[in-house]
Design goal:
Helices cover 90% and strands 0% of the residues. It contains four helices and no strands.
Length: 154
């Protein structure tokens, strides 16, 4: 019983944290938008929109990751999963999160460059494509690793 209570508490905490994160993200988006508005004219609106999209995507990813983590916790509670496995999953999640973050940062930097007009559109597109490719590769690698782990565990 006590254990259950503890678990519930933990869940609640996690939820709260998630909410907080969401709020913060939203705030960030708003701030960025305002700054952009101040900085630019109409022609830059597109970049701004892109930025916004990135932010949103980031939020979504974060949310997803959080959900996944929660699920893992649940599973752990049910003891359908071993501790090692759960840890592995957590690690994977973290890694993914990091990757997302890095991606977003890169994108942002690109946007900035574009704004400064030091880069042409084609170049930026090329770079973005490259990054996407890299991300895909990373994901693949991760999945593979995960599979390996699973097989090993069993």
């Amino acid at each position: 019983m006590m254990m259950m209570m503890m678990m519930m508490m933990m869940m609640m905490m996690m939820m709260m944290m998630m909410m907080m994160m969401m709020m913060m993200m939203m705030m960030m988006v708003v701030v960025v938008v305002v700054v952009m508005m101040m900085m630019m004219r109409m022609m830059m609106m597109m970049m701004m929109m892109m930025m916004m999209m990135m932010m949103m995507m980031m939020m979504m990813m974060m949310m997803m990751m959080m959900m996944m983590m929660m699920m893992m916790m649940m599973m752990m509670m049910m003891t359908t999963m071993t501790m090692t496995m759960t840890m592995m999953m957590m690690m994977m999640m973290m890694m993914m999160m990091m990757m997302m973050m890095m991606m977003m940062m890169m994108m942002m930097m690109m946007m900035m460059m574009m704004m400064m007009m030091t880069m042409t559109m084609t170049m930026t597109m090329m770079m973005m494509m490259m990054m996407m490719m890299m991300m895909m590769m990373m994901m693949m690698m991760m999945i593979m690793m995960m599979m390996m782990m699973m097989t090993k565990m069993e």
